[in-house]
Amino acid sequence: MIVRFLAHIISVVFHPLLMVTYMLILLMNINPYIFGFSSISGNFKLVLLVFASTFIIPLFGVLIMKQIGLIQSFQMKDKLERVGPYILTAIFYLWMFINLFNNPTIPRAFSTFLLGSVIGLFITFFINIFLKISAHTVGVGGLVSMVVLTLFNFSYGTFGLSLGSWGIIHISVLTLLIFTILLAGIVGTSRLILKAHTSKEIILGYAVGIFSQIIAFRLLF
């Protein structure tokens, strides 16, 4: 019982719609200088904008779909129920990418990771026609890929994390990558515990998330 409860919590905290916001926060902490400031507090409005556009608005759209009966539950156990939410979310993500890509104040690195999320969404939508792929592992797979790409292209190897009155701790990006990989495994395991997906659907999700970010990087760099 406790294990299933924890699996539910993990599934909520690391919901696919939150991944872009997590990517932005990580990139801001690892290398805030590419955003033109020295700490994440320098551009908190961007975090709110991305959070609203990639989580709040799509979530609101799904709530409306639930109210009018287009989906039966938020778990969307049937793959056909996921078609509408995937299309809606992909549209908002694509709109967000176009606006940020054309904004000279937004670093190309973040635009790349956002494009990777868009590509991942469209691939997931296509695969979902035939197989109920795990959107959760698509999300965390993309997060792992994002940290790898950041490690080799947009970081200085370590970064400082402010703990307020406790001071600043310095973290290796490689350590962050190991933690992210472990996190991806925990999320995938949680989906298996909840019997939301099969092992095949979980692994396929990881692959889509990882390679979508690589494709986006190759397109923009």
What descriptive keywords fit this protein?
221 residues; mainly alpha; two-stranded antiparallel sheet; 8 helices; 68% helix; globular
| Overall morphology | globular
Class by SSE composition: mainly alpha
State Rg: 17 Å
Q: What is the number of independent domains? A: 1
State the end-to-end distance. Answer: 47 Å
Order of helical and strand elements: HHHHHHEEHH
- Secondary structure: number of strands: 2
Strand order, largest beta sheet: 1-2
* Low-confidence blocks of residues: none
Short description:
The protein is mainly alpha-helical.
Task: Describe the protein.
- With 221 residues, this protein is mainly α.
- The chain has one domain (2-220).
- It contains 8 helices and 2 strands, in the order H-H-H-H-H-H-E-E-H-H.
- It has a two-stranded antiparallel sheet with strand order 1-2.
- Strand 1 and strand 2 (168-172) form a beta hairpin.
- Helix 3 (44-67) packs antiparallel against helix 4 (83-101).
- The longest helix is centred in the first third of the chain and has 24 residues, at 44-67.
- The radius of gyration is 17 Å and the shape is globular.
- It starts with a helix and ends with a helix.
- The mean pLDDT is 90.
Write the layout of secondary structure elements.
Layout: H1 2-13, H2 19-30, H3 44-67, H4 83-101, H5 108-128, H6 135-153, E1 158-162, E2 168-172, H7 173-193, H8 199-220
Antiparallel strand pairs: 1-2
Helix pairs in contact: 1-7, 2-3, 2-5, 2-6, 3-4, 4-5, 5-6, 5-8, 6-7, 6-8, 7-8
